[in-house]
Each structure stands twice: as structure tokens, then as C-alpha cells.
Amino acid sequence: MTENIQQKKTFLIDMDGVLVHGERAIPGAVDFINSLKEGGHRFLILTNNSRYTPLDLQHRLKTVGLQVEVNNLFNSAMATANFVQSQKPGGSAYVLGGTGLYHALNDVGIALTDYNPDFVILGETESISYDKIIRATQLIKAGIPFIATNPDSANPTESGVIPACGAVAALLEKATGYKPYFVGKPNPLIMRLALRFIGEHSENAIMVGDNMETDIRVGLESGLETILVLSGVTSEEMISKFPYRPNRVVKSVAHIELP
To answer: What is residue 22's predicted lDDT score, i.e. its pLDDT?
Structure first.
């Protein structure tokens, strides 16, 4: 059944499992984004993936036919940089992460260093040397605050599941005894920062995602209407295992009908 949205609202949309899967667009995703633009709906693609810059993400989406502007993208790297800058303007950090996290921190004036940093920050990355893990362990054990961009333990790829930020964070937590502060979904902080980025209020926004633990939970806890799509990590049978429910459940974004 196709769901109909009666009011024109702003959409916050997860990326992996909702718009794309690996290197291909999910069927109906291109038409959905085009319909949002044609209907005058404001939207923001909100992803926990901190590895890439918004420009990188824009290029990735463009290669599969999804035409979006850079200002339609917000990720956990940007949220983490904003959070760190608000806590200690002009501070410093020892960083384990990808290009997206490094760029986001540089953009807000956070210095990158392994000598007496203000924070240890972990993000998504393709590879981490064991030497960097050792140094991060030593710094966290010495009392340097530990921040991680997102709690996702694994990421699906076309070649199979790979460890994600949450898995590496668990390793460092086990080694040090200190839990990280996760900035990304389901922390409502990232939602507040994303809504501020797009200039919108929670009561006029809808969160669309495929993950009950991150997307739907953050939408619920931030006061947004939520739509769960079954094109990603969640099946219909899994929904009943959670103590909360999305407002709507659809097969994919192709089944969200806009007025």
C-alpha cells in the first residue's frame, strides 16, 4: 500500500539502505528525491557515515543517479565537529577516522595532534594502524575524553559486512575501561544539529530510515514523525521486538506518495 503524506513537510532521510545499497540506487529512490524537489519539499540526507566529506557523498549519489546539492547532506562527522567546537572552541584532537572527519574538524578550527590533545575522536575509516590504536588507548587511559562519531557496529557492503565505528569503539572501551560519547544517531544531538543546519523545527519534519535502533529511535526521541522503510536492515518481523514503533512502515521510499 502506498502511504500518503497530507502536509508538506521537511524530510530527513538516511542514506544506506534507504536511498542506496552499496554502489546502486534502491529502486524508486531517484524518483522519490525528484518528487521532493518538484513538490517543493525541503530535505536533508542524514547519515552516520563519517568517512566521507559532503562533496564525496554528493559524488557517490550522483554516480547512481541521485542529484542532490552539498547542502542537502549532513553526517556524523559534521555533527561531531560542531559538538567538539561548542565544548572547546579552538581545541585539539587525536583522530582516528576518514577524510570526512578530518575535514569537518579542520573546518571548525580543531587542531589535529597526538601531543596532549583535548579529545580522542574515533570515526569511520577504511583502515587503522595498530600504532594509532595503541596511542588512542594510552591517551584515553590517561584521561583524555573519548568521543566517537557513531555507534554502528557493522556496515553492509556489496562484498559483505565490515566492522564499523562502534566495533572499534568497543575495542578501545575494553582496553581502557572508558566508554565513548557517541554523537551520531540515535543521539538526539545529531538531530538537533541537523535541524539547525537546515533551519527546521522537529514538529514539521519526518525522519525516514531503515534502522529501528538508530533512525527510528532518534526520530522518536527528537519529536519527529518517523517512517521505516523495509529496503535495508530491518524486516517487518523485527519491528515487534522493539518497545517503540515507527509512525509508518513502507516497503521502500518508492511507496511514500507526496501530495
So the answer is: 83
Sign, Cα dihedral of 50, 24, 21, 4: positive
In the chain, residues under CATH classification 3.40.50.1000 are 3-48+185-257, 77-182
Can you tell me the distance from the alpha carbon of 65 to that of 25, in angstroms, rounded to the nearest whole number? 7
**What fold does the segment set 77-182 form as a domain?**
Rossmann fold (3.40.50)
CATH number of 3-48+185-257: 3.40.50.1000
For 194-203, write each residue's pLDDT tens digit.
Answer: 999 999 999 9
Q: Which residues are catalytic?
A: 14, 16
Q: Which residue type, as a one-letter code, is found at position 23? A: E
Global pTM exceeds 0.85: yes
SS3 letters for 93-149?
Answer: EEEECCHHHHHHHHHCCCEECCCCCCEEEECCCCCCCHHHHHHHHHHHHCCCCEEEC
Per-residue pLDDT tens digits for 202-233? 999 999 999 999 999 999 999 999 999 999 99
